[in-house]
Amino acid sequence: MNLRTAIIPAAGFSSRFLPATKAIPKAMLPIVDKPIIEFIIDEAIDSGIEKIVIVIGRHGDVIVNHFSFDQQLETKLNNSNREIFADKINRFSNRVEIVFVEQKEPLGLGHAILMAESEIKENCFAVLLVDELIYNEKKPAIGQLMCIYDEIKAPLLGVYDVPLETASNYGIVSGTESGNGLIAVSELIEKPQKPSSTQAVIGRYIFTTDVFDGLKQTTSGVDGEIHLIDALNVLKTSVFAKHIEGERYDVGQPLGYMQASLKHALMRDHIANAIKHVLDQ
Ligand code: G1P
């Protein structure tokens, strides 16, 4: 397996979270006390990823600062018996390489991925969106795709069954499912008005590098943006999809974000007790 790099696009406008995201990227919104992007990086590391390329846009300096070494803060925490927090602000430095590329114009997810092309040195790579948190303690979501990628060596999309009334918010996949849960994709449409299936692309992908050629040929689609899955349609190569197993939260919109926050809060005993106390009042 030569898949060692993952791209995390974090340059979007996040209009569904305004005004909270006017000056802060959505990737930095906390689930209790940990920014969304750290959950995504944990998932990548737990799956064996060694290098992360974060695509930043407006206010990207907030993300760069977050992952920068802060000598003053570390010294202060270590000298005031708060080493536990010093560990929390420096969780990734020895575990993964993190680099940043900039998307200067807000031209969509596909365009964001294209900005990272020069950082991909292998012939395949993963993409993880900060819109989705997937809990699976045994097998992280992108790891589920990485396990089977070697068998197919073709673009592979993580999908999840969503309610029909929400399907038009996603990239939607139709195809034939084989015994091992793999779907040979026959149709792939970004945010269809009349979805032909409820299998939604949920922000976990593995691509071969020829997707960059597809992206360069892709013209703007829905909402005037360049979409990742439109590039696969341009290439006309075989594409596969795989059901992702786990508890999924669409943190790209406030309801899913609140549900994920509550789940995470309830996993911590002292916060869970305080929440129960509030609910009982
Ligand atoms: C993006 C993708 C879409 C995918 C979704 C998953 O849409 O373009 O194909 O289903 O993420 O969250 P966005 O949420 O950025 O509009």
Short structural description:
The protein has 10 helices and 13 strands.
Folded structure, characterized:
- With 281 residues, the protein is an alpha/beta fold.
- The protein has a single domain, classed as Alpha-Beta Complex (Spore Coat Polysaccharide Biosynthesis Protein SpsA, Chain A).
- The chain contains 10 helices and 13 strands.
- It has a 5-stranded mixed beta barrel with strand order 8-11-9-10-12.
- The protein binds 1-O-phosphono-alpha-D-glucopyranose.
- The site of 1-O-phosphono-alpha-D-glucopyranose has 14 residues, from strand 11.
Fill in the keyword field for this structure.
Spore Coat Polysaccharide Biosynthesis Protein SpsA, Chain A; alpha/beta; two-stranded antiparallel ribbon; 281 residues; 13 strands; globular; binds 1-O-phosphono-alpha-D-glucopyranose
> How much is the radius of gyration in Å?
19 Å
Q: What would CATH call the homologous superfamily?
A: Spore Coat Polysaccharide Biosynthesis Protein SpsA, Chain A
Overall tally of structural domains? 1
By secondary-structure content and strand pairing, the structural class works out as: alpha/beta
**In angstroms, what separates the terminal alpha carbons?**
54 Å
Ligands in the model, by name, code or SMILES, are: 1-O-phosphono-alpha-D-glucopyranose
Order of strands, main sheet, comes to 8-11-9-10-12
Q: So, CATH architecture?
A: Alpha-Beta Complex
CATH class: Alpha Beta
| Average predicted local confidence, pLDDT | 92
Q: Which ranges are low-confidence, i.e. pLDDT below 50, for 5 or more consecutive residues?
A: none
CATH fold-type name? Spore Coat Polysaccharide Biosynthesis Protein SpsA, Chain A
Give the percentage of residues in beta strands: 25-35%
Global outline:
globular
